[in-house]
Specification:
The protein is built from four helices and three strands. With about 80 residues, it is an alpha+beta fold. It is globular.
Length: about 80
């Protein structure tokens, strides 16, 4: 069974992140990802960066992943605004 920590590690290895949190039950996962790489990109482009970081795992192991993606500036607003 896929563990949230292994998804977190794959995302962190595949892209520069300031924060990655992943929770889930082995099939369905939720992630919060903060990365400067998201700046100037649409939500779809941001999610594509994460999918690219996960590679084939998205096809083979991870059945559902919902994401909330933020730039560092957006994350600061959400948490301190």
């Amino acid at each position: 069974m896929v563990q949230p920590d292994s998804i977190k590690q794959s995302i962190e290895q595949g892209m520069a992140c300031e924060l990655v949190r992943v929770s889930g039950d082995g099939q369905h996962f939720e992630a919060v990802i903060v990365s400067a790489e998201f700046a100037g990109k649409s939500r779809i482009q941001q999610h594509q960066l994460v999918y690219r970081a996960l590679g084939d795992r998205m096809k083979a192991e991870i059945h559902a992943l919902s994401m909330k993606t933020f730039t560092p500036e957006q994350w600061a607003e959400v948490n301190h605004g």
